[in-house]
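User: I've been trying to design a sequence by hand for this structure and keep getting stuck. Would you show me what you'd pick, starting by listing the structure so we're on the same page?

Assistant: Good idea, let's start from the same input. This is the structure you sent:
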């Protein structure tokens, strides 16, 4: 297989290759979406904070009970921490996460009239909220472009040699410069979905990867197509997604809802 090498790649060639990768991934995942269940900006903000060091699936299985009991920032701000801890226990680091979600709810109530602000500079002042969380909220709850540099995003853009940076803020800046700002949110979804489903950290499914001809790291994983196919974690293969309430486009594409907490 002819694989394009970035050796001596010009800036123009890098931009073209990166944008082509994004176009190819958009065809593979036309229904890509944030994999946290939410009905409003407050729910997305809390869910994103809870998603640190655990899976979106576990968060989605946990938040229905949390939001049923505390549907607003005012109610969560006034909650008994021990009761919140018990609900959040499945998410791991539940004591620290309880402090964060109660703290950000108090800040929303006291400083923003109980509303999630739609500006980066305001969001990052909230307890437990960094740039990554802020961009998830801005891009998916407010439609304001942002790049979400999670562990999947960091791994893939370095694997693709879009940047050699290791600091998330520098990765965000470097990759953002390769794309129009309007592409940033969807780009984040495409890259993260690809990292979760095909381009895994330990055993990437190179032989089943739709962008293999564009990847300078081709061959780091399994290249045999049949063996690579067995590594896929892909909704069209019948695997359930992360969300209990996924978008209709995802269901139409053959995706399955995730099971609720405690189900067989």
């Amino acid at each position: 297989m002819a694989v394009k090498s970035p050796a001596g790649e010009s800036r123009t060639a890098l931009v073209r290759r990166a944008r082509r990768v994004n176009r190819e991934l958009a065809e593979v995942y036309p229904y890509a979406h944030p994999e946290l269940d939410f009905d409003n900006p407050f729910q997305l903000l809390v869910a994103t904070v809870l998603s640190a060091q655990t899976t979106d699936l576990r968060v989605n299985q946990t938040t229905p009970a949390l939001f049923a009991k505390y549907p607003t920032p005012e109610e969560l701000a006034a909650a008994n921490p021990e009761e919140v801890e018990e609900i959040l226990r499945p998410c791991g680091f539940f004591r620290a996460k309880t402090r964060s979600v109660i703290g950000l709810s108090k800040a929303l109530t006291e400083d923003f009239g109980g509303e999630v602000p739609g500006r980066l500079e305001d969001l990052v002042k909230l307890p437990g909220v960094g740039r990554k969380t802020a961009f998830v909220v801005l891009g998916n709850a407010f439609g304001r472009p942002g790049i979400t540099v999670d562990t999947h995003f960091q791994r893939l853009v370095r694997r693709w040699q879009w940047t050699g940076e290791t600091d998330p803020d520098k990765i965000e800046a470097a990759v953002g410069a390769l794309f129009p700002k309007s592409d940033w949110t969807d780009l984040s979804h495409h890259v993260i979905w690809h990292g979760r489903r095909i381009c895994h950290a330990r055993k990437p499914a190179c032989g089943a990867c739709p962008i293999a001809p564009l990847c300078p790291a081709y061959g780091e994983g399994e290249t045999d197509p049949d063996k690579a196919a067995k590594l896929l974690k892909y909704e069209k293969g019948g695997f359930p997604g992360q969300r209990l309430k996924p978008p209709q486009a995802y269901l139409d594409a053959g995706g399955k809802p995730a099971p609720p907490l405690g189900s067989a």
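That's my pick for every position. To get oriented when you compare it with your attempt: Residues 11-28 form the longest helix (18 residues). The mean pLDDT is 93.
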